[in-house]
Amino acid sequence: MAKKTREARPGELREIAILETLERYARKPEARLDVQKILDQLSPTGKKYVQHLVMSGPSSIVSAAKALELKQAEVEAAIAEIELALSRLK
Predict the structure, then answer these.
(1) Which of 5, 8, 45, 90 would you call most buried, defined as having the most Cβ atoms within 10 angstroms of its Cβ?
(2) Domain range spanning residue 70?
(3) Is 6 domain-assigned?
(4) CB under 8 Å to 89, separation ≥6 — which residues?
């Protein structure tokens, strides 16, 4: 039976791309250490956001900010930081 999926909601596409990148590299044993090093170098807010994203899945900036007790601008900055960090893997 196929897993039910839904269309991405506005604001979730960046988060989906981050998750897909993390999953792609997690399947490559030779890349796992590189990913871990990059994640270890993130700011505390970036690390907190990655953990939330992996555990809760993609959500809107507003929802993520509320769940993490952060300002929307802080979540936006964390996403940008993560995207930049992961771009070094490609």
Answers:
(1) 45
(2) 13-87
(3) no
(4) 21, 25, 31, 34, 35, 38
